Structure formats: C-alpha cells, structure tokens
Amino acid sequence: MESIINLHKNYEGIHAEKLEEFYKESGLINDSFKKLKSLKWELKCKGITELAELNITDAFQSIIKVSKGRNKTLKITALNAGIKLAGTKAIVHLTGHAHPIDDWTQINIISAFKKHDIGDTKGVELLLESQNTTVIVLGLKLIEELKLTQKIPYITQLVDRAPNTMIKYEAQNVLQLLTV
C-alpha cells in the first residue's frame, strides 16, 4: 500500500490512473475503507489519506463526516482529504460547523488549498455567512491568502452586517489588503 501511495504521489496522467485502477481491482480500496471505519483514530487517518491520495471520490461523504469529530488530527486529515477530493465543496460543509475551528486547523485548511492548487473557489464566500465566527474568520483568511478579489462584494456585505466588532475589523482589514 505504501509503495502504491508513494508511486502515485510521483506520477501523473496515465501512470497515476493505472495505479488507481490497480488499487481498486486488487481490493486494496476495501482495506482503506475498513481503516476509515476503525475506532482507532490513527487507522482512520491512514484510511482517509489512502483514499484521498488515490482520488476515491466515493469516500468524500464518509470523510466529511469524520471531519466533524473532536479529534484535531483526524479533523485536519479529513478536511485536507476532502479539499483534495472535492475542492470548495469540502469547506462548504463547514458553514454549519458548531465547534470552533482553531488557528492550527485553519492554517492546515488554507495550506491544503494552496497545496492542491484548487482553482475553483466558488463557495468560499458561503463561509462568511456562517453563524460560527471562527468559520467566518477562516473564510476571510482564505480569501486573503488566495487573493480572491472577486469576493470583495461579499466582504463588503460582511462589514455591514458583522456579528461582532472583531469580525468587522478583520473584514475591513482583508478588504483593505485586497484593494491596495
């Protein structure tokens, strides 16, 4: 399994597709799904990483469910995998996230966006509409880091209806950085 993952990381195109095909046909995919269902968070992480690396989009919903858990490492692994598999569709699930998203998790989400070079940023603005202020801050940081000037109208709206002064100042700061 490790050899296949390492090879897949280094290949593109037809060679990567052949590895993905082998992964499915050999039944190794079943091992990854078993790991995903494990009660041990370390095994879950391993299963998530395998499924994401080999582009198994069928695992997306299961991986997103895992991202809503309490274990920080598991959450970061699941969110990164979700971003790799589905781009912004993964972070849109955060809009209704009830728990605070700490700075470390936010940094990892932003890093995943950069690492996987997600071109489609449609939906990032939905984070600004969340009831969870840490999700709003994540949305602002993503927009700032990825220099998404097309999201300026959404930030302007946020400035007008910010749930608190901290969010308002953060939004004004991002707005200023994008317009300079």
Describe the structure in your own words.
With 180 residues, this protein is mostly helical. Helix 5 runs antiparallel to helix 6 and helix 6 packs parallel to helix 8. It is elongated, with a radius of gyration of 18 Å.
In brief, what are we looking at here?
The protein is mainly alpha-helical and 180 residues long. It is 68% helix and 0% strand.
Distance, first to last CA = 48 Å
- Count of helix runs: 11
Per the principal axes of the C-alpha atoms, what is the gross shape?
elongated
Number of β-strand runs: 0
Q: Which range does the strand content fall in?
A: under 5%
Give the low-confidence spans: none
Percent of residues in helical segments? 55-70%
Main sheet summary: none
**What structural class should be given to the helix and strand makeup?**
mainly alpha
What is the H-and-E element order? HHHHHHHHHHH
Radius of gyration: 18 Å
Provide the residue-averaged pLDDT: 90
What is the element layout, followed by pairings?
Blueprint: H1 2-10, H2 13-25, H3 28-37, H4 41-53, H5 60-66, H6 72-86, H7 88-92, H8 103-115, H9 133-145, H10 152-161, H11 165-179
Helix pairs in contact: 1-2, 3-4, 4-6, 5-6, 6-8, 9-11, 10-11
